[in-house]
Specification:
193 residues; alpha/beta; seven-stranded parallel sheet; 6 helices; 7 strands; 22% strand; globular
């Protein structure tokens, strides 16, 4: 089954306690994310890693503290989550060069990875039958990714032991909505990772 893994927003500003918008306990998923990314690569499955890439005066900072400003340490992904052959895809039109690439770093400026104008082209290119989604924050950016991917009509699985939430009740509501629309909750063990 053609599969694409979606590693959502696992960036230093979110994962680590010193990060600008730290998610309590999120550092605990770093190892799981690295394992899943390498697992996908070992099977020849591409990984799309969404990353916030904000300008210093981003409109989102009216609601949230400044975070993941392009070029800062906090905007980076931990080395353990990076694959060797990767490419950055900004939120701007242009040519895609994906030959031999195992990981796409998909830049975005909002909660939704679908705000990147290149994502539809990437999804067509990879032509997956199945999407496996994990990262942070479960009930925000992971939810936007998973629910948007469900709209493609493909199988969508969320890896519950490779996500971290801010609000357990909102996480559970997302899980219920995902299941109601045909999405699947899974674990790393069930994936064989």
């Amino acid at each position: 089954m053609r599969t694409v893994f979606f590693d959502v927003d696992t960036q230093m500003d979110f994962l680590y306690p010193a990060g600008a918008l730290s998610v309590p306990g999120a550092a605990s998923v770093e190892q799981a994310v690295g394992t899943l990314n390498r697992f996908a690569a070992s099977r020849g499955w591409p990984v799309i890693s969404t990353v916030d890439a904000h300008a210093e005066n981003d409109i989102e900072f009216r609601e949230w503290p400044a975070h993941c400003v392009t070029g800062t340490l906090g905007q980076r992904k931990p080395c353990s989550t990076l694959l060797e052959k990767r490419v950055v895809v900004p939120n701007a039109p242009g040519d895609l060069h994906l030959e031999g690439v195992g990981q796409v770093l998909l830049e975005k400026q909002t909660f939704s990875c679908f705000s990147n104008v290149r994502l539809p082209e990437l999804l067509r290119h990879f032509d997956a039958e199945r999407y496996v989604v994990y990262g942070v924050v479960t009930e925000i950016c992971v939810q936007f990714a998973a629910m948007g991917l469900l709209e493609t009509g493909r199988r969508v699985e969320v890896v519950t032991d490779a996500v971290k939430a801010l609000d357990a009740a909102k996480r559970d509501a997302f899980y219920a909505a995902l299941a109601a629309k045909g999405g699947v909750l899974t674990t790393m063990g069930e994936l064989g990772a």
